[in-house]
Design brief:
This protein is mainly α and 538 residues long. The chain contains 14 helices and 8 strands. It has a 3-stranded antiparallel sheet with strand order 1-3-2, with helices on one face. β2 and β3 form a beta hairpin. α4 runs parallel beside α6, α9 packs across α11 and α9 crosses α12. It is flat and about 130 Å long.
């Protein structure tokens, strides 16, 4: 009951307040309306006053404009009269001058016509003299023809006599002469080619070497190389038994899950992980580390840890690719290309880490491009991506350069960069200036001391093939491959090879090596011709 009474009182108060507000608002509205009407009247009066002033001003302006127009009209009429009189005077002077010129030209034409008539008379006389000379020439030509026939007969008789004396026909003599000329021309051409190449090298090779040397000197790299095994260090040999497990079940499960070979031998405090795929070796190493730290080692736990490590490895690969791109200042790479760059960390070529090689090539390319005034960003980008074909997991039959080019095209790289990737081993034609830079820097990175290693057998075979190639040429006594196959020293027989032929032989051997052999860097061919005179004092 009390609450209802309170509500009624509050409602009554609200109604009373609303009524009072309406009354006050109505009074204020009337006052504002009166003020607005007064302001409108004042503005109307101001507008009428301004309109009258504007009309008076406009009438004054029109009157003044008419006065100015009359004055301008008079001035223009006066100027037109003066201009007319001046034009009339100029026309009369010009007409008089042209009339004098016409009279002078008529006089010159009469003189020229007179000279032409005199020259025509001379020409008629010369024509008559020429006719007499033509008749004399015809007579002399008939005499010459008769003498030529007599000479041909005598020449044929002499040729027949020479053929009988030399026991050679004219055709055989021509063939023998042509053979001698071809041999001499070949020698001269070879010497000329060598001379041209040496002259070109005096300028081009000097500058090229300068650019390459400056590029190499400005790029610091590591000389360490990877191999096909990883070593997992353990605290004590007791852990080896846990890793092997009962009847070897743990180690078999680990090998089956990771795809590598786990070698547990007498090596103290170490387990060897062997496999050609560095990614698998790294997954196996990390999995072993987690299992040893955790202490629970059994087949189910091994599979769980390997799966988890594999996922973490994929994330690490992407992180490595992104970090590499950021370090080199390369932006906008497709995510799949970033993943392939990261996979390079776990791939090696001839013992050289592929990511380290690609980073090195990218820096070399940027430096060389800067030396040559080219786009350093494009060069660095192409240098990083030039070997991405080596990490494509599907192992296609295409060479890695062409595969890398197709992958770059697929993921939106520019045409210049794609051509540089595809042409760095000469599988396709180079169409941009960046392409030879990539090829040169790839060779520099791969051929520096300690960068790569080859199988001993293939290395020895290459040196033997190099020496055998030199021995195939005529006049060669001995061949020695020195400087780790960078130089071929050829010793020739001085009695069968002249000095000029030695130069040609060096050129021919170098072309043969370029055509038939595969080798890093360049091979210097040195031909040595030594003349010895031996006598004995008795």
């Amino acid at each position: 009951m009390g609450e209802s009474l309170m509500l009624l009182l509050l409602l009554a108060g609200a109604v009373a307040a609303f009524g009072i507000g309406l009354m006050v608002g109505k009074g204020l509205g009337n006052k504002v309306k009166q003020e607005l009407e007064d302001n409108l009247k004042k503005k109307e009066e101001d507008l009428l006053e301004r309109e009258e002033k504007a009309k008076e001003k406009a009438a004054f302006i029109v009157k003044e404009a008419k006065t100015n127009a009359e004055n301008i009209k008079k001035e223009k009429i006066y100027e037109a009269k003066e201009k007319y009189l001046k034009l009339k005077s100029d026309f009369e002077e010009d007409s008089s001058r042209k009339k004098n010129i016409l009279i002078t030209n008529e006089n010159k034409l009469r003189q020229k016509e007179q000279r032409i008539n005199e020259q025509a008379d001379k020409v008629r006389k010369q024509e008559a003299e020429l006719k007499d000379k033509e008749e004399m020439l015809d007579t002399q030509q008939e005499l010459v023809k008769k003498k030529q026939l007599e000479l041909d007969k005598v020449t044929q008789q002499q040729i027949s006599m020479l053929e009988q004396i030399a026991n050679l026909s004219a055709e055989d003599a021509k063939k023998q002469m042509m053979a001698n000329l071809e041999s001499e021309a070949s020698m001269q051409a070879s010497a000329s080619i060598k001379h041209i190449i040496e002259e070109a090298k005096l300028t081009a090779t000097k500058e090229a070497k300068k650019v390459v040397l400056e590029t190499i000197q400005r790029t610091a790299t590591e000389h360490a190389i990877e191999n096909c095994v990883s070593v997992f260090n353990i605290e004590s040999d007791d852990i080896k038994g846990k890793i092997i497990g009962r009847e070897g079940r743990n180690i078999r499960a680990l090998e089956a899950a990771t795809g590598v070979e786990i070698i547990v031998d007498d090596t103290p405090e170490a387990i060897i992980i062997s496999g050609f795929d560095p990614v698998r070796r790294e997954i196996a190493r990390l999995s072993l580390h987690r299992l040893v730290v955790d202490g629970r080692i059994h087949p189910a736990r091994i599979e769980e840890v390997v799966d988890k490590t594999t996922k973490n490895m994929e994330e690490e690969i992407i992180e490595i690719g992104e970090r590499t791109a950021i370090d080199l200042g390369i932006h906008g790479l497709h995510p799949e290309l970033i993943r392939m760059v990261g996979r390079m960390r776990f791939r090696s070529s001839y013992g050289q880490n592929l990511l380290q090689h690609s980073r090195e090539v990218a820096n070399l390319c940027a430096t060389m491009a800067a030396e040559l005034g080219l786009n350093t960003k494009q060069a660095k980008r192409a240098g990083l991506l030039h070997d991405i074909g080596k990490v494509w997991p599907e192992e296609p039959e295409l060479p890695h350069a062409l595969l890398g080019m197709k992958l770059a095209e697929k993921y939106g790289e520019q045409a210049d960069i794609c051509n540089a990737i595809g042409a760095h081993h000469d599988e396709i034609e180079m169409t941009t200036l960046i392409s030879p830079i990539i090829q040169a820097c790839d060779a520099v990175s791969g051929s520096r001391p300690g960068a790569r290693r080859e199988v001993v057998d293939s290395y020895i075979k290459r040196l033997k093939d190099l020496e055998a190639l030199g021995m195939d040429f005529k006049g060669v006594n001995k061949c020695y491959a020195i400087q780790a196959g960078r130089e071929l020293r050829v010793i020739v027989d001085a009695e069968h090879v002249t000095d000029d032929e030695a130069g040609a032989l060096s050129f021919d051997i170098s072309r043969k090596i370029e055509k038939d052999m595969q080798y890093p860097g360049q091979v210097k061919v040195t031909v040595i011709r030594e003349m010895r005179a031996v006598s004995y004092a008795k």
